[in-house]
Amino acid sequence: MVRRLGLTVGALVALYGLYAGLATLGTVPPLPWSKTVATWTLPEEQDPTPATQELTVMVSRIECNGGRTGTLRGAKVNEHDDEVVVTTYVAKQRPGAYTCLGNDLKPLTVPLKTPLGERKLVDGACTDANRQTALCLDDGVRWPLAAD
Question: How far apart are CA 124 and CA 134, in angstroms?
């Protein structure tokens, strides 16, 4: 099939390299297999209101990675009548052994299509039972905070 298109293996590698380079600049979306789900929290200074249409979330890789979250790969926002599910992504980690120091937090701006209103904010990493972490208490609801 490659020969029929007139492309050599070298040309395919060059095209992939160009795509990967543009993806790191944010010009094109990253390849779907080059990212993994991350968790997020709201910074202490952010208190969403019903009028909120843009959030800043603090993203952290779930897997052990020597204290580093790595490269952010954006977010997917699913807005429903009663909740807004924000799923954040980071670049896949390179193979190897990593210490579990707790990874750093990186800010990511997330726009909403409509004002938040009275909807809950939910971490999409907590909606998959296979990915549940200690950060998924309260079913991953990040706002409003549960009363003590």
Answer: 14
- How far is 71 from 126, CA to CA, in rounded Å? 20
- Side chain identity at residue 39, one-letter code: T
Q: Nearest to residue 68, comparing CAs of 76, 77, 59?
A: 59
- Closest Cα partner for 121 from 40, 10, 59? 40
pTM: 0.75
* Residue 119 tokens, joined: 């909807």
Residues 81 and 50 sit within 8 Å (Cβ to Cβ): no
pLDDT in tens, 69-124: 999 999 999 999 999 999 999 999 888 888 988 899 999 999 999 999 999 999 99
Token digits of residue 128: 């998959």
Instruction: Compute how many other C-beta atoms are within 10 angstroms of the C-beta atom of residue 83.
Output: 14
**Alpha carbons 77 and 90: distance in angstroms, whole number:** 15
Asked whether 142 and 121 are in contact (CB, 8 A), the reply is yes
Tokens of 148: 């003590």
